[in-house]
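Throughout this chapter, every protein is written as a compact record of paired, labelled lines. An example of such a record is reproduced below:
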Amino acid sequence: MENLVFKEELLQIHKALYEIPKTYRSDMRVPARIFITEKMLDEILEDKSLLQTVNVATLPGIVNYSLAMPDIHQGYGFPIGGVAAMSIAGGGVISPGGIGYDINCGVRLLAASMNVTEIKPYIENLATQLFHAVPSGVGRGGKLKLKGEELDKVLSRGARRMLELGYGSQSDLDHCEENGHMEGADPYKVSEKAKNRGADQLGTLGSGNHFLEVQYVDEIYDERVAKAFGLEMGIVTVMIHCGSRGLGHQTCTDYVNIMMPNLQKWNIVLPDRELACAPFTSPEGQDYFSAMKASANFAWANRHLIGHWVKEEFKKVIGDVNLRTVYDLSHNMGKKETHIVNGKPQELIVHRKGATRAFPAGRPEIPEAYRAVGHPVLIPGTMGTASYVLVGTQEGMEVAWGSSCHGAGRSMSRIKAKRTVRGSELRQQLEAKGITIRCDSDPGLAEEAPIAYKDVDNVIEVVELAKLAKRVARLRPLAVIKGG
């Protein structure tokens, strides 16, 4: 099997869309499409992300296209930034590699009742307090430790269980994808090893690209939609980016190991074993889907709890300040959704891996507060640049199953970033720009240097050119809290 796809083998559909035709390889069931500009395309030709997009196009039951968002980069099986919808009635599969190891890695955005000028005298102390209140780093545990039946309740009920335990508010649930809880989660489909890994990790960020960031709105692009989201110029926001921690990672590992030996039984031939999958309707497929939902519930409970700690620290440091959840949504998930296929509604299992659901106005899945405009699409950038709030479009529903990018997307490996960037110098550069950094690992900071990522502005430009989503607001960082 070849390692790379060459530029001349791609067809340009329009300025922000390329296609690898179905004729490229005999095992492709559908074409592969990449939302990207020519300049950005040149940046990804050296890794295997395009080949991975082609490989996804071979999966049983895939509908229309194998898709990749403009933040595409090489992942496990699927590229990060990959989107694929499988027909449930048509023998479609579910693939853990198409959802990711960090199940329901996602973003929660809070908005504060204060502006950037008002917070600046407190920002250094606030950053320090947040760093201590929200543990981060590899394997770090939190203040809440749950085992046995108590942990199972979180896996079953997600963020709702956190509310029952006295954390957060009903408004947090009302402004969360799935209201912070997926029906059909089965904690008994999650292994004891996975549960043990997650037992003390609720309310923690983890490592890698996960972070907590205090920001402010520095640009409004759509006044009407921004108003519906409660965003206005200058207000302070807090972005939380993390997922299901060790529990989700182990769940993915467990089910990849279950599916791989059964591929022959299901007559599934794969170009890459990392695409291990199961027919969605098979017992193994349904077991994984139930375990995935339980892991997703754990992740929503995690971000909900972190949001609670953040609110507490704001009150301790600043006093009478209100923080509300704007929205919380996933960018590593498998969802059962109904979409129009060949003019008729069809039930699909939509894989989004490093891709964000971006539904426009009117979809029943959108919280009532946002149904008239579409839900917020939260796109974190890098430490030294900006993050964005977008809103979905009807065109995006038609060409990408209502999906958008999930961030800037890596352009440099973590190892190369650490060789290229000195964490101590990066810390000084960011603080010279007025960005407070709380990270106890210089190598960990270097891994996430802005230079290690694509230009988020270019990524957002592609999203708009392709009409996947529209800009609503831009957020600039004031303080970054992360682990090494």
Summary: The first strand starts at residue 11 and ends at 14. Residues 278 and 285 are 5 Å apart (CA to CA). The chain has one domain: 7-411+453-481. The chain has a mean pLDDT of 95.
